[in-house]
UniProtKB/TrEMBL annotation:
Superkingdom as given in the UniProt entry: Eukaryota
Alphabetical keyword list: Protease inhibitor, Signal, Thiol protease inhibitor
GO MF term list: cysteine-type endopeptidase inhibitor activity
Pfam family membership, one: SQAPI
Source species: Lupinus luteus
PANTHER family: CYSTEINE PROTEINASE INHIBITOR 5
Protein name: Cystatin domain-containing protein
Chain ranges of the Cystatin domain: 15-104
Signal sequence interval, chain numbering: 1-19
Length: 105
């Protein structure tokens, strides 16, 4: 029992340290806007035209604005890959910035 408690305590501590919170409703329309923004910005920066298939999971944390870390399923033609996108959003300024966008293996 104490091993289980220790594991759960370690998991909770790492969540507190990282500050990331799991997004429970990955079907939220606002989250879909952020995912589409990430795919569009990736296209502007790389020329790779992806089609967003779905949001697999997401996390958020409050910093200067809100950061969203999303695991996305996207395709180019028949090729489907998974990507991690990090977007910073400042709602009060109506600003979004793509921080990173990379293939996840």
């Amino acid at each position: 029992m104490s091993l289980l408690f220790h594991s759960l305590s370690s998991l909770a501590a790492s969540a507190i340290i990282s500050g990331w919170t799991v997004i429970k409703n990955i079907n939220d329309p606002h989250l879909k806007e952020i995912a589409n923004f990430a795919v569009a910005e990736h296209y502007k920066q790389s020329g790779e035209k992806l089609k967003l298939q779905s949001i697999i999971k997401g996390e958020t944390r409050d910093v200067v604005g809100s950061n969203y870390s999303l695991l996305l399923k996207a395709s180019v033609g028949p090729d489907v890959k998974y990507y991690e996108a990090v977007v910073n959003e400042k709602l009060s300024l109506h600003q979004r910035n793509l921080i990173s966008f990379k293939v996840v293996h």
